Amino acid sequence: MNTLLKHTLTASILSTMMAGTAFAAPSEAPPAFVKKVADGLISRLKADHAKLQNNPAGVKAIVRQNLDPYIDSQAFTRIVMGTYATNQYSSAAQRAQFERNFRETLIENYGSAFAKFSNQTYTMRPYKASTSKNPVVTIDFNNNGEKIPVSFQLADKGSQWKIRNINVSGIDLGLQFRNQFAATVKRNGGNIDKAIANFKPDAEAAIDKKK
Asked: Which region is the signal sequence (predicted)?
């Protein structure tokens, strides 16, 4: 085999590998991914239920280990910041700081929410296959006879799914958090740095407001 042919074959193989990586798709179906995440988180909360009472730090640690790796915090940041995520209103450094802060408070929000469901059962709603990069999978939590639907909007990140937004009982938390952040910006006189430092997304307040 001459040198030119070797180089041609090598280039062909590398380009094929790169193309395969670029267009890789998650190997799991969306419902299987959501069930894996929910089962992993809830099983840990159930196993440690007794020692997690009045122990928010323990709940937070479990959520960080079992939910945080599957959150698309960049997408969530863009949803919540809304127009403030553009260069007109914020810098890349400010958006990165917002993402760090938001991710931390998101863990606290979901930690307290899922802790309430730790001894409950849930069922998966039938899923309709979709070619969308943002499919939605819904779980019904059974809370003392009351069904509480929680929908997970996913993002196709190539090698795996990630959660980009959550809807609870018909309430789009991403949009509700956006309203909360806009109000925080207003309270701080339009100062983005102060708004980012003071913003505390509140899932319970968002849901209660719609009741």
From this structure: 1-24
Q: Are 59 and 52 in contact (CB under 8 A)?
A: yes
pLDDT string in tens for the chain (211-residue length): 444 333 333 333 333 333 333 445 688 999 999 999 988 888 888 887 777 777 878 888 888 888 888 999 899 899 999 999 999 999 999 999 999 998 888 777 766 666 666 667 889 999 988 888 899 999 998 877 888 898 999 999 888 899 999 998 899 989 999 999 999 999 999 999 999 999 988 877 766 655 5
User: Is there a contact between 53 and 115 (Cβ–Cβ < 8 Å)?
Assistant: no
Give CA–CA dist 125/104, Å, rounded: 29
Cα separation, 193 vs 105, whole angstroms? 17
Domains belonging to the chain, first-starting first, are 27-209 (3.10.450.710)
Q: Which residue has the tokens 């505390």?
A: 200
Give the phi and the psi of residue 152 in degrees, each rounded to 5.
Answer: -110, 120
Alpha carbon of residue 60 to chain centroid: 15
CA-based end-to-end distance of the chain = 74
- Among residues 208, 180, 177, the alpha carbon closest in space to that of 79 is found at 177
User: How, if at all, do strands 161-168 and 171-172 pair?
Assistant: antiparallel
CA–CA distance, 36 with 163 (Å, rounded to integer): 13
pTM of the predicted model as reported, rounded to 2 decimal places: 0.79
Greatest alpha-carbon span in the chain: 74
